[in-house]
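Hi P.,

Sorry for the delay on this. The queue was packed all week, but I finally got your sequence through. Input first:
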Amino acid sequence: MSILDFIKGKKPRPETVNITPRWISKLNDDEIFVFGCRRSGRHYEGAANFARENFGAIVGQGEGLQGQSYAIPTAGVGLGWIRHAVNRFTEFATANPNLKFLVTPVGCGLGLWDFDDIAPLFRTASKLPNVWLPEEFWNELYK
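Then the structure:
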């Protein structure tokens, strides 16, 4: 970290952070695939489709635990809506410390949001030992 970053109050990124793998093809029994989706729960594109085909995501359910996946509505909604959904996810992850949540870059693909829009919403979740975030989210959180 540079002296200028220190003066601006930026925090150095911890040496160890939980980074979600770039590609997830299978899950251990205690792992949950966290994906962004349409509020309507139409899981036919992107990570939502992958979650439906592989990890039990349920068509018509636009938020919450579904099989070995957890949906966060990010497409067709505003940041306020996403913030509340991420807060509910964080509460769920806090209440389930026995599960490991692998958060994908929710909202940053087909949801059309930028990393700097979405990553700050996960600031509280990033402090949980059972939540893993994409490297791009960590980069934004410690920018």
